């Protein structure tokens, strides 16, 4: 069988603008080759910066920003599309090769109806009449499991949910009956329970339409459900390339092995969870617009242990953290820290109370002043809480830098010069500088690549052992909960649905929602998706 | 519900759910009226606080305490300030700005002609500057970070950095004095022909254009660049749409709101900011009228001019707000 897409020794370059230096040309993809047959799915997997999106876009002869394809061939049905002129490449894009972006919310034009955008390329390329295209769109909305498929196209992007938008984007890609679709992390931004639906919809649509696909993701468990072959990429080079079964069950390279084995349990659960450091009792809170986000939430964090708060976006986990810090005073309930009840509002709390609770945010990027050096960022709490200055302060900062495994060399660096993982480490050091008893961690690893996130989790656990600090760890990732939590709180729509020691919450008998959440987490196992969908069908038939 | 306000609030909340657009526009209208009323108080109080007195200025050397008191009584200045304010406000609401103290003629009549002249000037300045600014903004985007973009940026920045009276005098020196191709002063009369009028306002128009151009141009450039770098423009390109089609269909609807906003702001400036330019060019518009009235402490005229300027400013900003609201699909089509 002949290959639909054949990439030969692909080289991609970019121009970077280092601050204070002349622009530089660098190579970001160094000679990658692969073949994809009609109707097959190839998974491209790797960390950010591995070049997977760049390679995916090369299948449309497109370079994002200053990115240029500098060498090699991209053969579509035997024809090299790289030398084509603008007009020639336009005939391929949106017609024979389509693209599904990570953020459908940003990729749909807010000013036009979904239906018009879904059929636009198909009509524009003259592949179908407007009516035919509409009919096909309705059909696609249906097989993708969108609600009210006949009228779905009349809605605007802001009128539907994130998971629906992602499926609408898949419909947009499928509409012109392309030979190849590039899926660029289509489920990464979704909640797990939504991800599984979208994943199933995409898989079903690929099978029903017989299109081939490049599926780009950083989540090996996801790609294992949908691909025939997998290519593991790192720093723009192929690490390992082979059939999905071999990659998952018998990886040959060390890097692939690390990816497959990521997220092992790290911590045995603490036996005694009775010594509560933080107690939250009957908290109800609302934002200024009158919408209530927390309903009567009660839980506690034991001293020197980790409470994981899990839930999907909108479940109120971050709001809970805001209530604990006093940024959002609740209208009912109390927060007790040690033996003292904390004031509801942050401005009424003593400096010592503020010091004892610190925060680590999801986006270390936006949580640091880009114009301050690492030394200033970590030194600030030392000065603010303990009045340390000058050489003494510097000594403390360097000690903290050693503790987060970065060292003195970073003292004068600016945040922009750090990697994502390093920034998060600096944020941790800043929290530690205050010598807190409790650190609220708001999804500190969800913006990081799996292996980098591993490092951060290891660091947090080590610091907990050394300093007896408690964590309230907010996450949507069950695997992290399994790895680090002593106790678990599950939240749904502002209510606490389950709370207790990890071994109780994560083992049967389950709360219904906890069960759904647990079953939705992709597992590194072939055929997992089918198995889950089959159980779901059986359950709904049984009810 | 015990609290009657709660009922109103609930109704408003419900209306906002079903007709967010109408509620928002009605809110803007109400706020504008409230603002205008507040401005009328400020103007009246400000004029009251001005040093100097009409009677003294008017009588000059022959000012005796008795003559001053007579004139003050004639004008009703001996009555309390609140009485005079509400009397004035009552007239204004009906379109009557009172009589000029200096000439005794109704202010409304005089001001209509002056306002017409000012709007005439502002209209031509707008007719030239808006298309020019938007056009140059697009050119700047097209040649982004290259020579034409830089030249446009530097020149427009230079123009905005100079005060308008300075630009005015420089234009007069070059075009009227040295080259002799332009008319100065720019005074217009009732019996002037159209071509004479246009020739007369050439220099003040040019001055105004230079003052407002840079701001609109830079905002246009920024708005288009921000829209062009959005993910949906990449989607359009990856759909195989041509550049022109993508811009018209996908970029334009999203760039309109910010551009209209800055255009409205500058139109307001054109009408209000003409004061200085009109004085420099001796143009018989509202600005000149107001400055003359301040000199002789002719308070009804000053108040009328101030209020009209404020009204124009508020009106244009309100229009910009409403356009931005209407252009937003989230408000046009609620969930």
UniProtKB/TrEMBL annotation, chain A:
Q: Which GO terms describe its molecular function?
A: ATP binding
Q: Give the way it sits in the membrane.
A: Peripheral membrane protein
> Where is this protein localized, as stated in its record?
Cell inner membrane
* This protein's record includes keyword Membrane: no
Classification via SMART domains: AAA
What's the main place this protein lives?
membrane
Domain ABC transporter spans what residues? 7-260, 278-518
Keyword annotations from UniProtKB, A to Z: ATP-binding, Nucleotide-binding, Transport
Q: Which Pfam families match?
A: ABC_tran (PF00005), oligo_HPY (PF08352)
Instruction: Fetch the InterPro entries from UniProt.
Output: AAA+_ATPase, ABC_transp_ATP-bind, ABC_transporter-like_ATP-bd, ABC_transporter-like_CS, Oligopep_ABC_C, P-loop_NTPase
Family matches, as Gene3D superfamilies: P-loop containing nucleotide triphosphate hydrolases
Kindly provide the name given to this protein in its UniProt entry. Answer: ABC transporter ATP-binding protein
Automatic annotation (TrEMBL), chain B:
Per its record, how is this protein called by name?
ABC transporter permease
- Which GO molecular-function terms appear in the entry? dipeptide transmembrane transporter activity
Q: Can you quote a single GO CC term?
A: plasma membrane
Annotated ABC transmembrane type-1 domain residues? 115-320
Q: Where in the cell is it found?
A: Cell membrane
The primary location reported for this protein is membrane
Sorted alphabetically, the keyword list is: Cell membrane, Membrane, Transmembrane, Transmembrane helix, Transport
Q: Where are the transmembrane segments?
A: 21-45, 119-143, 155-177, 197-216, 259-281, 301-327
| Membrane protein topology class | Multi-pass membrane protein
Q: Which InterPro entries match?
A: BPD_transp_1_N (IPR045621), MetI-like (IPR000515), MetI-like_sf (IPR035906)
Q: Which Pfam families does the entry link to? A: BPD_transp_1, BPD_transp_1_N
The record's annotation in CDD domains points to: TM_PBP2 (cd06261)
Family affiliation: Belongs to the binding-protein-dependent transport system permease family.
